[in-house]
Amino acid sequence: MIQKSWRCTLDTDLGTVKKTASFAQDTLLDVKNLHAAYGASEVLHGIDLQIGRGEIVVLMGRNGMGKSTLMKSLIGTLPVRSGEIRLDGKELARLSACERVKAGLAYVPQGRMIFPAMTVKENIETGLFVRGKTRVPAQLYELFPVLNEMGDRRGGNLSGGQQQQLAIARALATEPKLLLLDEPTEGIQPSIIHEMARKLRRIRDENQLSIMVSEQVLSFALDIADRILVIEGGNIVHETLREDADIERLTQFLSV
Ligand SMILES: Nc1ncnc2c1ncn2[C@@H]1O[C@H](COP(=O)(O)OP(=O)(O)OP(=O)(O)O)[C@@H](O)[C@H]1O
């Protein structure tokens, strides 16, 4: 398993072995043999997946391959048929979505799903509520200054890119260990996509959280990922570290 193969360097001064790949040091999310279905139609056929602490994993795949279904099964808006979902050792598969958020999962769904009639600040406060807090952390406004400037504006009046920032800020307000983002670049203009990748890496570095992104834009995936997985027909069919990625092969997986 790639993620478990720690890369080590010899610290000659101390004569001890040091682990250097921070994300590979321990597993945060451990999914085993996950099956999920819509009614009688099974869509995920036994997914095994591990995400390390501080790791960014990008889940790629063509339309209809099961990316959103996996995200929904993890956060709990779609009940799992069978299998295990452990976050930091805690079993989540039978918990409600709300309990999973309290346990440290946050989810930005495809299409953002912010509350359009609520103000920007109120949207963020719905995330704070999970931790019993009321004050928006300064770090969120440093990351997304536009949300500070537009605090009193209705969420529904923001542009697509601004709504995406709001959805990420709301998710971060729940203080997650693992942030799940379903196709965050959808409908976002190319110049902002690179900025989004930079911000997500910064969020990972500053908060030491893990991120799993489902994505079809290969350049974004290569920009952000530590590791890339490919899903096809509800099975993970390919896995590669970013530095070993075979671009041609990944392009083939994504082409119709
Ligand atoms: N609510 C639903 N009821 C029944 N089948 C569904 C439902 N949602 C998705 N499916 C089916 O499940 C399969 C996987 O869909 P899913 O939305 O997970 O794909 P995806 O990889 O996220 O695609 P996209 O990139 O288009 O969002 C598809 O065959 C889809 O038609």
From TrEMBL:
Gene3D superfamilies: P-loop containing nucleotide triphosphate hydrolases. One of its GO terms (molecular function) is branched-chain amino acid transmembrane transporter activity. Residues 29-254 form the ABC transporter domain. Signal peptide: none annotated. Keywords: Amino-acid transport, ATP-binding, Nucleotide-binding, Transport. The keyword rRNA-binding does not apply. GO terms for biological process: L-amino acid transport. This is Urea ABC transporter ATP-binding subunit UrtE. It comes from Acetobacter fabarum.
